[in-house]
Design brief:
356 residues, alpha+beta, five-stranded antiparallel β-sheet, 39% helix
Length: 356
């Protein structure tokens, strides 16, 4: 899950003071790592340079938290051999989601000459911090990605509306990438159910109950050492009780589940590129690399190739679904019997809407 928090202070000690030693030996390098920039990611001085703003704005930057679904995080405690590959999958997925946000959501509003245009920009520095626990000592793999409010080579802050508008698409890409990378790097199969739940095939749901992540009290911040957290997790496992519920492993399906794709667009009046990216990511049951997802969307919807920001061009729901199906199968005319049930329903809904 991706959550975005506004940073109004230049104090970055929350990030630099936590060395996340619970992941020592599982990740490549320290907790902090640069997606773009230089210096020591453990230095408050170097990290504070990421937060850039203007004299007219109180917002210094943003903290983008990419948290792995709970079943994926439990692998940190259950399989130490797979844990380093899980952390590597996390960082690869964070990088892919951030590349999307920078290319599609990082814009400024140019109101010169009486106009109001969205202009693409880039961050000068981006730093992230990878952690493996929550405040209650449960396995919780997540990254804090810190970015500035003012992009490089501009005198104004970014348009935060675009950042929030594209957050769901970025989150979908992040999760799809995690599923893909976990399967590529480990023996586990990460899946997305039709109901929208992320799970590991064969992993008992009792582990989700053991480390649920939801508590009435937030808990105090604690810096765990690697040996301490391993002992903590071993004690937790003594309380584990099987639920008997396990997701079955499935054979590799088509690139996407067309029914899941259609369901993700259900209820919208208009569909923009970001909505299709989100729907495609959710429909990639076993995951897909973000670059491949964007390549597929660009190929199926070439009119959206350069769309970004809040004001992306839109299509009707039926058009968005039909365009994907027709272009996937080729330019030849489709017979009605070839259309899937959800496309036929979309056509009926579209007709009903026009007749009202």
């Amino acid at each position: 899950m991706l959550r975005i928090y506004v940073r109004r202070s230049g104090d970055v000690r929350y990030y630099t003071d936590d060395q996340a030693r619970e992941l020592d030996g599982l990740r490549d390098g320290p907790a902090g790592w640069w997606l773009r920039g230089d210096g020591d990611p453990a230095s408050a001085h170097d990290v504070s340079r990421v937060l850039t703003t203007t004299s007219r704005s109180q917002v210094m930057g943003y903290d983008l938290i990419f948290a792995a679904p709970r079943p994926y995080s439990t692998l940190l405690a259950l399989d130490e051999a797979a844990a380093p590959h899980l952390v590597a999958a996390q960082r690869t997925s964070v990088r892919g989601a951030m590349a999307y946000l920078e290319s599609r959501a990082l814009v400024i509003r140019d109101r010169s000459a009486g106009g109001d245009r969205e202009v693409s920009r880039a961050w000068e520095r981006v730093v992230s911090f990878t952690h493996g626990v929550n405040r209650h000592g449960e396995p919780h793999l997540h990254d804090h990605v810190v970015v500035g409010a003012r992009p490089a080579n501009t005198s104004v802050v970014l348009d935060s509306r675009a950042l929030y508008a594209h957050a769901r698409a970025a989150d979908g890409l992040y999760r799809a990438s995690l599923r893909f990378e976990i399967a590529r790097r480990t023996s586990y199969q990460a899946q997305r159910t039709f109901a929208g739940h992320d799970a590991i095939a064969g992993l008992d749901e009792g582990y989700r109950a053991l480390w649920g992540g939801h508590h009435d009290v937030r808990g105090e911040k604690r810096y765990w050492e690697r040996d301490e957290i391993r002992q903590r997790w071993r004690r937790d496992l003594e309380r584990f009780e099987e639920s008997g519920q396990r997701l079955a492993r499935i054979a590799p399906p088509r690139t996407i589940d067309e029914h899941r794709f259609g369901a993700s667009l259900e209820g919208r009046r208009e569909v923009a590129r970001r909505h299709v990216v989100e729907a495609w990511s959710d429909a990639a049951i076993l995951g897909q690399a973000p670059r491949e997802i964007e390549g597929c969307v660009n190929a199926l919807y070439p009119e959206w190739r350069d769309e970004r920001g809040v004001r992306e061009k839109t299509l009707g729901v039926w058009q968005a679904r039909q365009s994907a199906l027709v272009r996937e199968r080729g330019p030849r005319p489709l017979e009605m019997r070839e259309l899937s049930a959800w496309v036929q329903r979309s056509r009926e809904y579209s007709r009903e809407g026009r007749s009202r």
